[in-house]
Amino acid sequence: MKDGETGNRLGSYLRARRELVSPEQAGIPPGGNRRVPGLRREEVALLAGISPDYYLRLERGRDNNPSPQVLESLARVLQLDDVERTYLLGLTAGRPRAPRRKRPEHVPARVHELLAHLRIPAFVEGRAFDVLASNPMAVALSPRLQPGRNRLRSLLLDPEERAFHQDWEKATADLVAALRTTVGDDTDDPRFVELVGELALSSARFRILWARHDVRALGGGTVTVHHPVVGELRLHRDKLPVDDVLLVVYYPDRDSDSDEKLRLLATLSHTGSAGTPPPGP
Questions:
Q1: CB of 265 within 8 A of CB of 227?
Q2: Contacts of 98 (CB under 8 A, 6+ apart)
Q3: Average pLDDT by consecutive 10-residue portion of the chain (281 residues)?
Q4: Is residue 154 within 8 Å of residue 161, measured between CB atoms?
Q5: What does the pLDDT read at residue 82?
Q6: What is the end-to-end Cα distance of the chain in Å, rounded?
Q7: Which of 22, 30, 218, 275 has the fewest CB atoms within 10 Å, i.e. the most exposed one?
Q8: What pLDDT does residue 93 have?
Q9: Which of 18, 38, 30 shows the shortest CA–CA distance to 80?
């Protein structure tokens, strides 16, 4: 990775999460002359029941294999949720590395057939959010969902994508956190290195979010988007694992306003008008 954390992932994560917990959240009365955001090292050590010197060694990478009990205590002090706690426990030196993926991501033929039959936006994404395949409705929903595009890159660097999402700030935070979760131990995977390096150079938003070390499992949910032709759409999103890839589908509530607009979008996509805004008065 290009963020300088590969040699000390545990320390980088502890430091980033420590800075996000306020004294008030930890039950510590706020005092003057605080030089760091969030908690001090000695405060984390005290609340976790370990010595300040030992905690300093953890942050500086001098001890990469703390006991599960120490990590559980730190997770409690840093107020980590289940996904973040699991991520923390996986950063220790004693954890065996998962087998490295040696073959390129592949979309099974049956999934291509399924995409052709679906009448809702659907596409296949890889581990780094590369779009590997998509159906016409997905492209009608967003041209950034064409095969060969990268969802995170589009989200951060394309102005159209910022206008497309009702809550772009949340969308970017969720996807960057999901990327860090997906990266896991594969910090030297060429695709991840390439993507993180490009975004670190091109996007200030990415640099801010990547430095937070947020981790999140990005699965189902509901999003609101603004299509340039049919207007606002409220869509549910589900991610379905198929072999080594994910099938992503977007669908509205039945008989809702968004359902009607999505049907209109399907009609327009057949005439080639789905991506063209209506003329002004």
A1: yes
A2: 184, 185
A3: 63 93 86 78 93 93 89 95 91 60 80 94 95 96 96 96 95 94 81 94 96 87 94 96 92 96 90 55 44
A4: yes
A5: 92
A6: 51
A7: 30
A8: 57
A9: 18
| CA 75 – CA 17 distance, rounded (Å) | 10
How far apart, in whole angstroms, are the C-alpha atoms of residue 56 and residue 52? 6
> Edge-to-edge strand order for the sheet containing 122-125?
131-134, 122-125, 245-251, 231-242, 221-227
Burial 56-88 (b: 16+ CB within 10 A, else e): eebbeeebbebeeebbebbbebbebeeebbebb
Contact 124, 107 (CB under 8 A): yes
Centre a 10 Å sphere on the Cβ of residue 221 and count the other Cβ atoms it contains: 11
Q: Quote the CA–CA distance of 113 and 67 in Å, as a whole number.
A: 49
127 conformational bin, left if phi > 0, alpha if psi -120 to 50, beta if neither:
alpha
Tokens 């969308």 identify what position? 171
Give the integer Cα–Cα distance in Å for 7 and 20. 22
pLDDT at 96: 53
**Spatial separation of the C-alpha atoms in residues 9 and 97, rounded to whole Å:** 14
Contact status, residue 122 vs residue 253, Cβ threshold 8 Å:
no
Tell me what pLDDT residue 276 has. 53
Name beta bridge partners: 124.
133, 247
What is the spatial distance between Cα 16 and Cα 150, in angstroms, rounded to a whole number?
27
DSSP state of 24: T
Pairing of strands 245-251, 231-242: antiparallel
Element (H, E) at 239: strand 231-242
Interaxial angle between packed helices 82-89 and 68-77, expressed in degrees from 0 to 180 and rounded to the nearest 10 = 140
